[in-house]
Automatic annotation (TrEMBL):
Keywords: NAD, Oxidoreductase. NCBIfam families: NDP-sugDHase. Its EC number is 1.1.1.22. Belongs to the UDP-glucose/GDP-mannose dehydrogenase family. Residues 320-421 form the UDP-glucose/GDP-mannose dehydrogenase C-terminal domain. It holds the Pfam family UDPG_MGDP_dh_C. GO terms for biological process: polysaccharide biosynthetic process; UDP-glucuronate biosynthetic process. One of its GO terms (molecular function) is NAD binding. It comes from freshwater metagenome. Pathway: Nucleotide-sugar biosynthesis; UDP-alpha-D-glucuronate biosynthesis; UDP-alpha-D-glucuronate from UDP-alpha-D-glucose: step 1/1. Signal peptide: none annotated. This is UDP-glucose 6-dehydrogenase.
């Protein structure tokens, strides 16, 4: 019965395109709406405008069934019973807070097309209180509709898996009816035994930012330990392994290195701090300022190691940067620590050449003045130093003896603690890694 429901997805970026294709794969009729005609044209042809393993095939397959369509015409949502709002909430240009203009515009634009009994479901990450105020607004402009919040926890690189087999479903609702509708949509996922958490609107919004803040804290914690290890002559990788065996701590997200980036963790912790301040709870989240500072310091620490290895003046040196994306299996370069480090070294006068398996084009669009190489071997040719900054499998598979024949100096810095140190050293390399003393 639930398959008779028609869904709309507003905003067809990372989150929206994934959600639309996944919901279609569950058997729903889905219309995706976006203001960008180029994106809509690509998606309508079944082509993904970004890289995400598995989503390309799923999208093509769903478009072919005819269940999944895309349009720039917002009136197309008028057939739908449930409307998922998946637009971006980037950091605002003039501060730490999130820019809510896209979310507000999305809800306002669809309001005139909402049919009796329909449900608007926000999935975008928003500051706590947003859902309640959007719902109050909607009650005035479209009293026939209701609004709920259903935060998304998908990771780039695992988007399909995280949408279809999430580790929990969280719904913020103001009444039983909204919960029932969402239960119908997610019925096949609930049937897998997925935990279902009903919350009020503010708690649902908070769950999302609390989860991302915790993850950011875990990463900065281990990077703080890396700093102490460096000062004390310890090894953070051994430390992480040892503490991770305690199930209360857990071993995941304890990979020390150049820290977190991307379109979520950095901006989410900043927006959370800004919101807490507005709510008069500034002190409660003061620690996130330090989490942010530790994270940004990791980038600086790599640059210090480079200067230490080469010279204060970098103008005579070629530095090969392996990795531009904020993490592997993604082409996303938003707030990428790797790219930030490359930019800073370039600005310091070094001859920086960057390679990435999927991120060269997005990186070039952002920084057209940087130099890029089409392959890792091309990138390292004649290099005085190699920086390994995004842990793609391709880089772990490099043969240090072969790479040794291409470079000028056999120096490598592993910014992700992902390479086999002994293997590189046995091939004659000077090998440094963050948080590991030699
Ligand atoms: C993150 C969350 O993990 C998702 O649950 C959430 O849904 C998503 O944000 C979002 O808010 O939309 P994502 O941005 O895809 O997902 O990336 P993560 O896998 O969390 O990695 C974030 C950054 O932390 C990367 O730059 C990664 O290299 C870094 N990281 C991760 C570390 O430096 N060390 C680790 O141990 C783990």
């Amino acid at each position: 019965m639930s398959m008779n429901l028609t869904l709309s997805v507003i905003g067809c970026g990372y989150l929206g395109a994934t959600h639309a294709a996944c919901m279609s794969s569950l058997g729903f009729k889905v219309v995706g709406v976006d203001t960008d005609p180029e994106k809509v044209a690509m998606l309508s042809r079944g082509e993904l405008p970004f890289y995400e393993p598995g989503l390309d095939t799923l999208l093509a397959q769903e478009v072919k069934t005819g269940r999944l369509t895309f349009t720039t015409d917002f009136s197309a949502v008028s057939d739908a019973d449930i409307h998922f709002v998946c637009v971006g909430t980037p950091q605002s240009k003039d501060g730490l807070a999130a820019d809510l203009s896209y979310v507000k515009a999305a809800v306002q634009t669809i309001a005139p097309f909402l049919k009796e009994g329909s449900l608007v479901v926000g999935k975008s990450t928003v500051p706590v209180g947003t859902a309640q105020s959007l719902r109050a607004e909607l009650t005035k402009t479209a009293p026939q509709a209701d609004l709920a919040w259903n935060p998304e926890f998908l990771r780039e690189g695992f988007a399909v898996e995280d949408t279809l087999t999430p580790n929990r479903l969280v719904v913020g609702v103001a009444n039983d009816r909204a919960e029932e509708i969402l239960k119908q949509v997610y019925e096949p996922i609930i049937a897998l035994g997925t935990p279902w958490i009903r919350a009020d609107l503010p708690t649902a919004e908070l769950v999302k930012v609390a989860a991302n803040s915790f993850l950011a804290t875990k990463i900065s914690f281990i990077n703080a330990m890396a700093e102490v290890c460096e000062a004390a002559g310890g090894d953070v990788t051994v430390l992480a392994k040892a503490i991770g065996y305690d199930p209360r701590i857990g071993s995941r997200f304890l990979q020390a290195g150049i820290g977190f980036g991307g379109g979520c963790l950095p901006k989410d912790i900043r927006a959370f701090m800004a919101r807490a301040q507005e709510l008069g709870a500034k002190q409660a989240l003061e620690f996130l300022r330090e989490i942010d500072a530790i994270n940004l310091r990791a980038r600086q620490r790599v640059i210090d190691v480079v200067r230490n290895d080469l010279s204060e003046d970098l103008t005579q040196y070629k530095i090969a940067v392996l990795g531009a994306t904020f993490k592997p299996d993604s082409d996303d370069v938003r707030d990428s620590p790797a790219l930030d480090i490359a930019v800073q070294l370039h600005a310091a006068g070094a001859n920086v050449v960057i390679h990435d398996p999927k991120g060269i084009e997005p990186a070039r669009r952002r920084f057209p003045n940087l130099n890029f190489a089409d392959s890792a071997t091309e990138c390292v040719k004649g290099a005085d130093l190699i920086l390994h900054l995004t842990e793609w499998k391709e880089y772990r598979d490099l043969d240090p003896s072969l790479i040794a024949q291409l470079v000028k100096n056999k120096i490598i810095i592993d910014g992700r603690n992902a390479l086999d140190r002994e293997l590189w050293r046995s091939a004659g390399w000077k090998f440094h890694a963050l948080g590991r003393t030699d």
